[in-house]
Amino acid sequence: MTPFTCMTAIAAPLIRDNIDTDAIIPSREMKTVGKTGLKDGLFAGWRYLAIGNRDPMPDFILNQPGYSDAKFLLSGANFGCGSSREHAAWALAEYGFRAIVAPSFNPIFHGNCIRNGIVPVTLAIDDIMKLADAMPAPIHISLEEMQVVGADGTALPFHLPKEARRALLLGLDPIGQTLLEIDCIKAFLAKDALSRPWIYSN
Q1: With b meaning 16 or more CB within 10 Å and e meaning fewer, what string describes 61-87?
Q2: Sign of the CA dihedral with 137 first, then 80, 87, and 107 last
Q3: pLDDT tens digit string along 74-120?
Q4: Sheet strand arrangement including 155-157
Q5: Do the beta carbons of residue 45 and residue 26 sit within 8 Å?
Q6: Could you tell me where the DSSP H helices lie in the chain?
Q7: What angle do CA 169, 152, 61 make, to 5 degrees?
Q8: What is the helix (H) or strand (E) element at residue 11, kind and residue range?
Q9: How far does CA 110 lie from the centroid of its chain?
């Protein structure tokens, strides 16, 4: 996955609580088991005028002028609730979103974001509303400095667990993170084979 260090970009304000994974990618749009072919189905129930067509809903934020190149999404609480479908994170990533800023996330979705190179930024709703009020204007998100800098220059710190931050900075999925420890794994296996040789016999 693509590493994330810092980025300055437009943030699309979609300030609703409890945006679930079926709203992010409706089940009827899940026609693949891969990570691609999903971006057109992102927010399909809100983004298009009717099921089955691609005529844009004029009022939806991603269809409005100034937000076509948005790389960040501002949202309400409990973003990514509902089913555990990873397609939701895949669709957001394929569309081009690199960070979601919300007061809280569903824990499974939070993990899916990290595994797919999307930074889940947790900020207080008052701070998110201030960012939204200044849109469309670029904001800066730095994973190195762990802060969001609004259009007015205000810096808002956020927190991510150490391992999640490292995975996003290096662009590593769980397999990639495990391979970073390959020397330790080999050393353990060599030591373990001496103490428990029957485990390794064919």
Answers
A1: bbbeeebeebbbbbbbbbbbbbeebbb
A2: positive
A3: 999 999 998 888 999 999 999 999 999 999 999 999 999 999 999 99
A4: 119-122, 99-102, 72-75, 6-14, 138-142, 147-149, 155-157
A5: yes
A6: 21-24, 44-47, 87-95, 107-115, 125-133, 162-170, 174-179, 182-195
A7: 75
A8: strand 6-14
A9: 7
